[in-house]
Amino acid sequence: MIQLVSVNVVNESIFDVIILVSDGVKSLSLLEGKYNEIRLAVENFSKICCSLDEGNDWLIPSEKIPAKRLIYSSTGSIHGDFDDVRKYMKAGIAAGKRFLMTGARSPLLITLPTERFPAAQICSAIGFLHSLYTPLLNREKIENFVEKADLIGILEFKKCQKIENFVPYGSLDDFLQGIQSSFNLCRDIGDGDPQRMSPSRVVEYILKEFKDSSIKINVIENKDQILKNYPLMAAVSRSANNIEEHRARLIWLEYIGEGEITETLFIVGKGVTIDTGGANLKVGTSMYGMSRDKYGSAVLADAEGRLAMADALTEMKELVRRALKARNPHLMTIATLTGHVVLSYGHCSAAMDNGPARAVNYAEQLKQTGDVFGQPVEVSRLFSEDFAFHSSDVQTAQLKQSDIGPSVQTLRGHQGPAAFLICASGLSECGLDSAHPIKYTHLDIGHVMGAYPKCSLPSPLLTLIAHHILPKTKFQEWEVKIIS
Predict the structure, then answer these.
(1) Is the peptide bond before 453 cis (omega within 30 degrees of 0)?
(2) Residues catalogued as catalytic
């Protein structure tokens, strides 16, 4: 993994290129003082380049700065009604691609802060690191693999009060190092092809990556045990049961933090390593990119996805019921579940709360966090019609798993699966009117990580980290406030 380091000066000889991400030349006034040479280099270049502020990236030579060259990546306008912090992430990605063209090895990344987007520095750096990711298959086939950079410097630029309160000085590199590690693991699994990341090899990878860590791992892979305790998951795995590397596995990961525990998350992620469509075979181009149908578990569904998750969700529900000492429990499912959510929200995930979760405005708060960190989340509400849709049409069954048509041809095609999971798991008995209400949120993430075959950008992983982990660490003390 590429090493990151925080710096507060730009005259270090260890950096061979300076990368500046900014919304425009006018913001360069923030560089006055000890960063004046960088400001002058860009301002002089702007006199011969009239499109410098239009969202492009440029390589600017300069003898006045130690690195002798500077990459300027513009976000374009950030002041419009519908501009958001993702412009910084895109500018970071563009800067990373330009950096790779230079042959440099040790960049110094400077992102000019803005009051409007306090997470601009984080998003810019994540975009830059995204461009430097090398897929697992490529890393494994190169005998002496070398990362695309030796060292990345992060200039912690503090000129705005909001930034000062957002990430304490001297800790941004630590936070980004952790984000880079989690993103790489997520991409390794999520982007891996169906052979390299078959169920058995996902298990091998997880055991290797979390070896000697504080995470407790339990793998259930016995076919008879899965059939007995997870019958719906076993049904999904039937066609693969005779192929050792492709039959189902259930991976339990448990992490118990240090200090006071204020929240307990029970998360079920869908991990279908290749979605062929099952009995309703995906034909034409419909199977293209279906190796990413496991991204819900990587961040941590089609008809088969909701079945695969229902058993584990049921067990999680029972764990919550039994674990009366669990502080502030919250159940979640995360899945690349429906094409409907892609048509509905495009680049956004959809969050659906049950009654207890909605009572505390969980999805709304997650939406606010997503806006701050550039991984948008839309809130979808559940109605009685969604539950009625999954009522069985025959007397011999209680639930109908899905209709005959795909989600994209079904009214409320991504809300229905959430209702099905609530009913199938028994969470329908854990609502606000029950003796023991349990918060539950379903996240349908569609294709928010990016479409195959491009390298994925894990989402809504950053939003979940920012919402559940960041406020509890040394990095930040902040609160997302609902706008009434």
Answers:
(1) yes
(2) 282, 306
